[in-house]
Amino acid sequence: MASTINLEYDRLGEVKAFDDTKAGVKGLVDAGITKVPRIFHHPLNTFKLASDTKFSIPIIDLKGVHQCSDQRQAIVEKIRSASECFGFFEVVNHGIPEGVLEEAKEGLRRFNEQDPELRKVFYTRDYMKKVVYNSNFDLYSAPTANWRDTLHCVMAPDPPQPEEMPSACRDEIMVFSKEAMKLGNLLFELFSEALGLDPNHLKDMDCCEGMAVLGNYYPACPQPELTMGASPHADSDFLTVLLQDNIGGLQILHQDQWIDVPPVPGALVVNIGDLLQLLSNDKFKSCEHRVLASHSPRVSLACFFSTFIMTNSRLYGPIKELLTEENPPKYRETTVREYSAHYKNKGVDGTSALLHFRV
Questions:
Q1: Which family does it belong to (predicted)?
Q2: Residues 273/238, Cβ–Cβ less than 8 Å
C-alpha cells in the first residue's frame, strides 16, 4: 500500500511545480483553490490544540528602564524569570511608536497583495542576497510545507540599498528595522544583566551585529484543519522580536501544553533563540512554537538577531563566566554560520538543532 501511495504522489515533483510558479501560497489562493494541496498536509498529531491552562505569557512593561535603577532591576528580574520559564514574553512601552508598527504591517500586506508579477521579481532561494522572497525556506527538506510566504530582508550589519527593496513596503520596513535594532540593543543589555553579567557582555560578543526582518504572510486558508502556518520549531538566532497582527494563531509549547500568545495592542513578542540558549548553557530556553492556519489572512514581522550564513569566524559556546564544576559546558563551540547551515539543511522536522552541538 505504501509504495502505491508513493507512486501516486510525486511529492518532489509537486513541490518543484509549486516553487516554479514563483507566486507562493498567495498565488494558490489567487487562483481560487478550495482544497489545500497535499504538499501542505500535516500529520493529524500535529494539531494538538491549546488546552485550558493556568499558564499565560508574561507581559513586561519596559517603562522607566532608563530612568530608575530600581525599576530597571525589577524589569531584569521579570525578564530572567520569563526567559528561564517560558523563553517567551511580550513587551509594552518598548519605545517604538505605534504608527511605525501599523505602517510596517500595512506595508507587508501591500507587498503580498499587489500584482503577483511585481512579487515574482524578488522570488529566489539564494540566501546570499539581501532581499529574498519565497515560500518556505525549507521547502525541499522539510517533511511538509507551511501555509506561508516570506519576505526576508537582511537589515544589519550591511542593509540593502533602498532600490533593492520592494517599493510596496520599502520605507515602512526600513523605519521599523531601525527602531527594532534600538530595542534589540536594549534587550541584549537586559539579558546580559539577567545572566549576572555586565550590561554590554552580549553586545560585545556581537550578538546584535546582524539582524534580518522576516515579513511573514499567511494567506487565508480554505482548510486550516489540514495545514499549519508554521510547523513547531525553535528559532536559530540569538533573539527574536516579533510584531504580530490581531488575528492570533501563535502558540508556544510549555510543559507539554500549547499556549496562545495573544495579540496585545502595541506590544511586541520577544523570544529566546537557540544560540542564546547555547550561550547561557541552557539557563535561558529557546522555546518551541508554531502558528495555526486561519480562514483570515495574517501578517507578522519577525526581527531575527543573528548573522546567519554571513562569513564570521567568531566561535560561540557557553559563556565561561556562567560555568562551574557543577555546571560544565553542555555544548561545543560553533560559528553562527555553521549553526545556521545545520538548521537550514535539517529543516523544521520536529527535533531541536541544538542536539547536534551537545557535548
A1: Belongs to the iron/ascorbate-dependent oxidoreductase family.
A2: yes
